[in-house]
Amino acid sequence: MFKFLKGVVAGSGAGIKDLPYNIGEPYSSAWGSWTHYRGTSKDDGSLVSIFSLSGSNAQDGHLAAGRNGVKRLRTVRHPNILSFLHSTETETFDGSITKVTIYIVTEPVMPLSEKIKELGLEGTQRDEYYAWGLHQIAKAVSFLNNDCKLVHGNVCLFSVVVTQTLDWKLHAFDVLSEFDGNSEASTGPMLQYEWLIGSQYKPMELSKSDWALIRKSPPWAIDSWGLGCLIYELFSGMRLAKTEDLRNTASISKSLLPDYQRLLSSTPARRLNASKLIDNSEYFQNKLVETIQFMEILNLKDSVEKDTFFRKLPNLAEQLPRQIVLKKLLPLLASALEFGSAAAPALTALLKMGSWLSTEEFNVKVLPTIVKLFASNDRAIRVGLLQHIEQFGESLSTQVVDEQVYPHVATGFSDTSAFLRELTLKSMLLLAPKLSQRTISGSLLKYLSKLQVDEEPAIRTNTTILLGNIAGYLNDGTRKRVLINAFTVRALRDTFSPARGAGIMALCATSSYYDTTEIATRILPNVVVLTIDPDGEVRSKAFQAIDQFLQIVKQDHEKINTGDASGTSSIGIPSIPGNASLLGWAMSSLTLKGKASEQAPLASANTSTPLASATSSTSLVVDTPDTVVLHANLGSDLTDQAAPSSPTSTDGWGELDNGINEDHDSDKDGWDDVEPLEEQKPPPALATIQAAQKRPVSQPKPQVTGVRTKNVVKATKVEDDDLWGSIAAPAPQTSSKPLNLKQAAMHDDDDPWAAIAAPPPTTKAKPLSAGRGRGTKAAVPKLGAQRINRTSSTGL
């Protein structure tokens, strides 16, 4: 490090072996006698450019000018001037001949002439890029002439290089000198090394060595002439051979021609100042220049200007040269988002530009910025990230998701906005497979247990669906504690019919994780009740699930009869395609906005993905008629039928505080087929839930009348008195007597799942079934319709 600093300060070293850079292949062109090489750093392998100049002895005039260039380049700093990194000078001996070589190390650049050929731009895009490049060089020349009172002396095509971000930068400072306009009596050359300048690039006064006239001229006179030479070489596509060729203006852009002619005025005092060229030229008024200029002064813009600009940027980017967008605009946009100067709509433009990159480039240029944005406190940016997570989710590594992304995403589970809770839930479909078991068990399942009793029915439904989709990523112990209780005790008792249907589909999709004892004693009793559900879709799914689980039990029976003892545990069969597609459809339907006719076709495209981990390799086929029927029946679920037991009652996931946030944003939550239900009568539905939870213990069994006036059934439900505390309880005994409530209470104390269970509710009275057990006598049956307890898993 000290050697490097010494080289920067002193400009020389002991030799080439001390140069901390590797010299690569040379470029085909360079300014003057210099040779331009590609290079890399020996420390970190970063790219650099290395310029070398050799002379036969230390007194060579080229070497003296080269040392002047090194000194000037080291001391003059500007965004549009080549950045200096290091320099050294070496001596080599070949017999009696001494060879001296000067090395300058700079940021990685490429000669402008070669970059233009590489880009191959044509038409409007070429003019826009030339305008941006000339704008940058004009700013560099203006800085030298007007601010520093320096004269470059040889502005031309070969004194311009291009960076990796396609910025143009001025270099070749060998002739650079102070403008000595006050010494009019001096007859010596103001430009000490003017003999290095090609005769075709010299204005008339310099060709005649009229130093008196040069000193009387403005400091920009010589370099303005050089800008004119640069413009000619750009548009003609060839190197300037003689001064007379500058009169050929056929290739010059019409909007630039007046300024071009003023730059090449025969009278030095009338030549156009570079600063005036920047401010007044019509040629620089184009989309590319205006877009980049806006991005460079973004901090000076107000929020309205930023919002308007970034909303137009995605469409604007398609009209600009693709290479310039990716190499110049994209880094500016990523930096603006990372440091907070860009508005949330900029994220859409960033991801759109990122989609034009290869996977490797995306991971290097875009992904680090996205990971940092997850820590943003701006809700709009968080929403944007979650809405577009499918575009970059697969690129996130397991470690990054678990340590950097999930801790920030998880805050959305408890957000007051229902829309943000919904987006957070949906994002877990991509993020959960990359989480560690510790994070899943210790954090994610806690949040999901609360979301299953969320006030939004769409969120409750999709929580069940998510559990079914990520079941394959849970360990065996967690699956035993969670799945059956979450699907049967909560989902099958939800007041929202799609939530009950989702519970059935989730059970079918995860059927391979249950043994026959669990199926016979805990799953089938709960599913059978739904065969008389008021909703036709739920009944159809219930019958389908019963057939599937009975097939599993029959297979176990046949294996036992044939003496195959291995069939008594984990004998599940893959879920059938119909159920798999329905589980996938429920996720898609409830996450898309639009009309029913727009949702049905989209369902078929999204059904196979969510259940890939939980289903077999059988191809999935969406039952489109079923999809349409479910959508059509949603409107009457809460108004035309009596609601089953409340999903927020005691149900086996852990006692939760079911407080309702009144300021949530559910008006546009992205679930079109659910919104009408919420808009019709949400207060009565919530009132029913709260009233059921606050009934006193001594209250007799409630009598429910309504559309359910048939098939009177009375059952005792063990899980009614447990909130996720009974999840770890072993499977009920298959003796002649069903499990009683005292046994359930005993197992609740040793529940390992209780460690992540939600806190107990603040209500003192037990809801619904509090007066049905614990040693009390059964209530005397009453005449008339009785309520069907559809939560029973052991007492039927």
From TrEMBL:
PROSITE patterns assigned to the protein according to its UniProt record, in alphabetical order: HEAT_REPEAT, PROTEIN_KINASE_DOM
Domain Protein kinase intervals: 2-284
Region (Disordered): 635-679, 751-796
Keywords (A to Z) from UniProt: Kinase, Transferase
UniProt biased composition (Polar residues): 636-651
KW Kinase (keyword) present: yes
Top-level lineage group: Eukaryota
Keyword Heme: no
Ranges occupied by HEAT repeats: 366-404, 523-559
Compositionally biased spans, kind Basic and acidic residues: 661-671
GO molecular function terms listed in the Swiss-Prot or TrEMBL record: ATP binding; protein kinase activity
Name of this protein: Probable inactive serine/threonine-protein kinase scy1 isoform X1
Taxonomic source organism: Nelumbo nucifera
Source species taxonomy: Eukaryota, Viridiplantae, Streptophyta, Embryophyta, Tracheophyta
